[in-house]
Design goal:
The protein is of the alpha/beta class and 268 residues long. Helices cover 45% and strands 18% of the residues. α4 runs antiparallel to α5.
Length: 268
């Protein structure tokens, strides 16, 4: 996989497909492979550029502190380094928080914005959830197992666990197959989640924006929908029923269909 220097760090990425560039921003702990179930569909219409954020995958993991604003600056510099002046930008969770800052601070870089399971500012409930993940990670001393044992239950509905246990096991195996994030990098990334506050930035976002949530997401629930819809002037909201925090895995078909429809509307 190619690597490039950007904003003082070496960033790892993968590129597939043809068409207008689409930059895919991973969620907490994840590397570029987290969009494996989307790339097959997206790459038929777009050049998919999936990147490892600072602290994850094979991108550098310097000591913190990290912030969602810093991640956005990294991505802007990364785009400059690979010669992509402007792109569609899509992210889930931490990727969405990064996308918010990117579109507000570097608007010339963003043609359209897709914010999945995102949030405007970390509230006391989300802070408590992420601090719980940090406690689990410190106790286990293993970020991969923290994801599977501590974070998965927030990502998927009880029904998925009950009806498709083999699928949950396959997703766990997929996570275990990826580069393991060091504990220190997890703490830096998760502290950035806790500190995230982009409320004042929303009005600066001019790119057409799709905002999506899982109906049963507890971590970044639809409680954030109205603030995003009312503050981002050209935005639309989609709610995936029967999904929690990770519709990209829980209902791949519907997620890909609705998100790709938005991307194609704003291409060209």
């Amino acid at each position: 996989m190619p690597k490039v220097m950007a904003n003082g760090i070496t960033m790892n990425y993968e590129q597939q497909g043809a068409g207008e560039p689409l930059v895919l921003l991973p969620f907490l702990t994840a590397d570029n492979a987290c969009y494996a179930f989307q790339i097959a569909d997206y790459s038929k219409y777009f050049t998919c550029i999936s990147v490892d954020l600072r602290g994850a995958g094979e991108t550098d993991k310097p000591a913190g502190p990290y912030s969602t604003q810093l991640f956005a600056d990294d991505v802007a510099a990364f785009m400059q380094a690979i010669g992509v002046e402007r792109a569609h930008v899509s992210g889930l969770s931490l990727g969405a928080a990064t996308g918010l800052w990117l579109a507000a601070k570097h608007p010339q870089r963003v043609k359209s914005l897709s914010l999945h399971s995102g949030w405007t500012k970390t509230d006391p409930f989300l802070k408590a959830v992420v601090e719980c993940w940090q406690i689990i990670a410190k106790g286990l001393g293993n970020v991969t197992e923290t994801v599977i044992r501590g974070i998965f239950p927030w990502c998927f509905t009880p029904e998925l666990y009950a009806e498709k246990p083999d699928y949950i096991d396959q997703l766990a195996a997929f996570v275990r197959s990826r580069p393991q994030q060091p504990l220190e990098a997890f703490m830096s990334q998760s502290n950035a989640v806790i500190a995230h506050d982009a409320v004042a930035q929303l009005a600066h976002i001019g790119a057409p924006t799709q905002v999506t949530f899982g109906r049963h997401d507890g971590a970044t629930s639809t409680r954030f929908a109205e603030a995003m819809k009312s503050s981002i002037r050209d935005s639309e909201v989609v709610v995936f029923e029967n999904c929690a925090h990770a519709p990209i895995y829980e209902n791949v078909g519907e997620f890909n269909e609705k998100t790709l429809a938005f991307l194609k509307r704003h291409a060209g």
